[in-house]
Amino acid sequence: MMKGKPRPAVIICPGGGFFSCSDREAEPVAMYFASLGYHSFVLRYSTYFTGGLEMPDLSKPLPLKKESIYPNQIRQLGQAMLVVKKNAEKWLIDPEKNGVCGFSAGGHVASLYATRYNEPVLTDYLKASAKDLKPAFSVIDYALTDYHLLDADLRNKENSPMDYAFMKASNVAYAGVEFPDENLESEISPVDHVDSDTPPFFIWATATDPLVSPIHSLRMAEALAEHKIPYEIHVFGEGGHGLSLSSQAVVGAKSDINSTVAEWTNMCAKWLEKNFALDLPAKSAFEIMKEKEENKC
């Protein structure tokens, strides 16, 4: 419809606690962004399990798997960014408007990548420039962004043995240990890597998320504000974790639908349209033709 003009693009990182990549936060989200006119890609980054939506036995300590731990995920996202930009002309993509999006664990990957794309962990490893790796924007959804909050997060879950065991196992799957030390916490906390070159962020979370506190999103917004990076944040009053689009398109039960939270998609669409709109002419070909005919009369 744009007659060969390039469109913006987004690379989507599903959640899944670093155990797997959730289908609910993958293709349905890509289809939504595609409906807005954005080329959409899904990155199924390395996770603890390799087949389908799988969860560990939380009654036992989780053995370490080096292939699933940091920094593999952000390096894979960097590789995906380079592939998309390399094929920008062939795929009709505007390389200056190529962003990232992530949910939960995938939101951590997207936000850590967006704050560390210009650091040696990516530039040296991928042998690429910060310019080639830089995302135009980052959309993060109920993401864990500040691992310094981890102790408090775990204390808040001590009365919920399943959530407590899940978080510890997730830390092993991603960080290699149940309780990262202070240096590792800083290394994997996006809030600690925001700088003047960080791209704009759209952030949303729910105030009643039982797994990832909305404080993570608020801390991310605070770090962006301190560095004068454009951002928009929405914290909805009610809602659980892992809501994805929060509509019947992605749920298995009515309890997973929250029409208020589902508004994040419209809010994000307006934010993208304002800041990363399609390159469209002011008038259609028909309108221009009509004006020419009228001017002849």
What does this structure look like?
With 297 residues, the protein is of the alpha/beta class. It has one domain (7-296): Rossmann fold. The chain contains 12 helices and 6 strands. It has helices spanning 27-35, 72-86, 88-91, 105-116, 120-126, 130-133, 150-156, 161-175, 182-187, 215-226, 264-275, 285-296; strands at residues 7-13, 39-42, 93-103, 138-141, 201-206, 231-236. Strands 2-1-3-4-5-6 form a 6-stranded parallel β-sheet, sandwiched between helices. Helix 2 (72-86) packs across helix 4 and helix 2 crosses helix 5 (120-126). The longest helix is centred in the first third of the chain and has 15 residues, at 72-86. It is globular, with a radius of gyration of 20 Å.
Total beta strands: 6
Report the portion of residues in β strands.
5-15%
Oligomeric form: single chain
Question: Which parts are unreliable, with pLDDT below 50 for 5 consecutive residues or more?
Answer: none
* Rg of Cα set: 20 Å
- The CATH architecture term is 3-Layer(aba) Sandwich
The number of helical elements comes to: 12
Q: Structural class, from helix and strand content?
A: alpha/beta
